[in-house]
């Protein structure tokens, strides 16, 4: 994998704040490598299109987002996490093994 493009709807960007992109060989996000973790503040918005460089080998691209009540809510973040992606594009280069 070389890069991943995420296309978000252009409404309620606070719903997506704090998301992670994880590359894994299983469907469990805990088994993978975090390629990207959003740490934006209250004033920063998630753009409608994000291009994320990610040079990791894996079978699954996992979009992960959660809100943990024990930590309280952060300014600019919605109380609940959402996964309303319009499109995900994964770009890479296949390497043949000899």
Give keywords.
single chain, 98 residues, 3-stranded antiparallel beta sheet, 0% helix
| Shape type | globular
| Residues in β-strands, percent | 25-35%
Number of strands: 6
Give the strand line-up of the largest sheet.
4-1-6
Structural class: mainly beta
The helix content, as a percent range, equals under 10%
pLDDT < 50 runs, ≥5 residues: none
Q: Strand-and-helix sequence, N→C?
A: EEEEEE
Number of helices: 0
Q: What is Rg?
A: 15 Å
Major sheet: size, sense and barrel closure?
Answer: 3 strands, antiparallel
How would you portray this structure in words?
0% of the residues lie in helices and 31% in strands. The protein is built from no helices and six strands. The protein has strands at residues 3-7, 20-24, 33-37, 49-53, 60-64, 87-91. The chain has a three-stranded antiparallel β-sheet with strand order 4-1-6, with no helix packed on it. Strands 3-2-5 form a three-stranded antiparallel β-sheet, with no helix packed on it. Strand 2 (20-24) and strand 3 form a beta hairpin. The chain is globular, with a radius of gyration of 15 Å.
């Amino acid at each position: 994998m070389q890069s991943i493009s995420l296309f978000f709807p252009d409404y309620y960007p606070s719903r997506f704040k704090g998301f992670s992109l994880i590359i894994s060989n299983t469907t469990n996000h805990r088994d993978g490598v975090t390629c990207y973790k959003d740490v934006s503040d209250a004033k920063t918005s998630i753009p409608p299109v994000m291009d994320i460089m990610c040079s990791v080998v894996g079978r699954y691209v996992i979009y992960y987002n959660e809100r943990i009540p024990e930590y309280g809510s952060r300014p600019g973040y919605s109380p609940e996490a959402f996964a309303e992606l319009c499109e995900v594009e994964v770009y890479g280069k296949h390497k043949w093994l000899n």
